[in-house]
Amino acid sequence: MKKIIHVYCPACKSRVPVEVDENILLSAKNSPLGMTGVVDIHRDHALIIYIDAHGHERGSRVYSLITPLETGKTFTIPLKYMTSLNNIKAFKLVLKDRDLVIEGYKEQIHVMIKGVLNKVELEMAFSKLSNNIYEWFNIMLKSIDETKDKIKIETLYKALQFLDYFLNYPPSESYKDFLALILSSMSVTYKVDDRAVKYYALIRNIIEKMYPHSSIDEIIKMQGKPLYEIMRYKDSLSVRELIEYLLALEKREVIKFEEIT
Amino acid sequence: MTILSGSLAREYNRLTPIIFSCLPKLRNKLLKVDIDFKEKDSILKVTEKLLSRHIFTPIVKSSWEEKLEKALETVVDDLISIVEDFEREEMGCVRMLLEFLMESSLYAETVREIGRKIKIPEIGSILELNSGTGRSSLELAKISKRKVIGIEADEKCIEIARDYLKTEKVNNVVFIHGDPLRAGRYISEPIFAIVFISPVTWLYDIETLISKAYTLLEFGGVIYGSYPLRERPDSPNIIEPFLKLFGGVTPPDKNRLKWLFDREGYHKPSIQKAGPLYFFKASKV
User: Fold this and answer.
1) pTM for the whole thing?
2) Cβ contacts (< 8 Å) between B103 and chain A: which residues?
3) Domain residue limits, chain B
């Protein structure tokens, strides 16, 4: 049974409706703390509402998108976000190093594919199974393992959207790097080399013909900001093009990726 | 026998005045900046000699020619950083200058003309030494329908070439990161054509490359190359000062090249001038 509770978001200064369904209650019940955090992503912040096993609000917190997630907690991606995924029905990610559980369900699922790599446990359920799916699942698991310290709820959701879109296409190794970059996009930025930009002008037409929705002007404007800021409003196809473009610039030493400390 | 058609060779003539127009700026900059490197005196001597010539500067330039002029001016402005990069054996920003040259229609058409002349058995492959950012290997593969192996010492050039390969969905090219002078280590197939026409080649000692190519080539095979040779031993090539900035060596003259072909045992060598460049071909029989 679903119920709607209204929670005040101090950052937006307004009350927001949050849907509490059976999956959230179950997740709270199974959590060692007896509650789960429901994540509502707002413009530049995320509101996390803690719900207990009875469906009552037990407090809320606003996170800036670059704040590290609290350890020892379970977070649930609400149904309204999950419904935008076509191929992924449910997921549960356990990052043992960070004592963190992030999960999301479109419906009650009893059978999921499970993979364990080092201290990462990933369970996923898909609308249809194919040989590609297992390969994609492995790529996702490896990317998560590579970036496990940098994953945020928003970047995980972005990576899930990306995976959901490309599940219909044949997988390739380069997608592991793409997913890893998306997963760590809140902790990664880049610096533009002004000297290299002068040389880039010589080949700009050639490169930007290959990546028609990308431009060096946007890249210069956004330098120093987390990658997530550039990709957050882009669809998966545009995210892929953006990453390919950034990698093309990196190969030409026009930009240099840097970690946000 | 000509390597390039007359009209294509004439296109190269248009490069000479553009390069010439940048020489005074290069010379002045070198005299002005406080930087010392191995080839500095040699560049100053060569530019002095070259500037005593009179070369007509064209009034009308194509947009690509204007870009080339701008590129050379950027190189002059950036001289100190370039010298530092090459002293560290890094290509740095010059990689994009290389890509600009290799992605030009003049370069692509040159490769296609050469590719159309390469006739090799079905089991044979084409080897490109110094494949740079990959354009020549890709065009050769498209034209010849044979397997092409591009070997390049700069790792980032290889990555860029692989991107083009993926974008253009060409499946008969392999790019290998490695020393072109040790190409034998990376190949196992019979090589019936060796090409070294990318601008990266101009930074190598051509005598070593020609000698190496002979050992890699099957009997009946052919080599095609380009190099900014000197007309006579005391007559520097107009590209020479720029190449020396990038660590290039003093090029031999065309008679020395002919002598070298004879020494190595090549058959029927031919050399053709095209603007500041010389294209050559020779076979192993």
Assistant:
1) 0.85
2) 203, 206
3) 6-101, 113-237+248-284
